[in-house]
Design brief:
single chain; alpha+beta; Alpha-Beta Plaits; 4 helices
Length: 159
């Protein structure tokens, strides 16, 4: 014997009822009172006394975290080079001027014999580098994008 699946059977029954015009009417909705809402939302229960949290961890975890923070964490990215010259004092001056005008953008002074370089930004993509270069072009007409090892982006503080 042919066996129908329950959803197919229900659809067939519903189609038959609609065709015959014998569709049952829904029950009337009763007037129900809505409970009053609180004027202020409370998402976590408050405590009246402060508690104490005790963290128990293996000494190896503490040593691993200490070792991790001592390591340098760099990745491949881009910077905009704004200065290249053999004069160290001029390079330091350019870097200081840049940091005064752009305190939110990091600036790095490096030496590769016989020149000092001032590179700015920690950019993940070349497109970000193009944007920064366009902003700095009026101030540093000879600036250009260079691939470099950059510092990892800082996470925002969770205040």
């Amino acid at each position: 014997m042919f066996r129908m699946r329950p959803p197919v059977l229900l659809l067939g029954l519903l189609a038959g009822l609609l065709a015959s015009g014998q569709v049952p009417k829904p029950a009337p909705v009763k007037n129900m009172s809505v409970p009053e809402r609180r004027s202020t939302a409370v998402d976590t229960p408050g405590t009246r006394t402060p508690g104490t949290i005790i963290i128990q961890q293996d000494a190896k975890i503490t040593a691993l975290m200490t070792d991790y923070t001592k390591r340098e964490h760099v990745m491949k990215g881009y910077r905009v080079q704004v200065f290249l010259n053999a004069d160290r004092k001029q390079a330091e001056s350019i870097r200081a001027q840049f940091l005064q005008k752009h305190p939110e953008t990091p600036a790095y002074l490096s030496y590769q014999a016989p020149n000092f370089k001032v590179r700015v930004g920690d950019l993940l993509t070349r497109l970000e580098g193009e944007k920064l270069r366009a902003e700095l072009k009026a101030e540093f007409p000879g600036c250009y994008i260079v691939p470099d090892e950059i510092e990892l982006p800082r996470l925002p503080d969770g205040d």
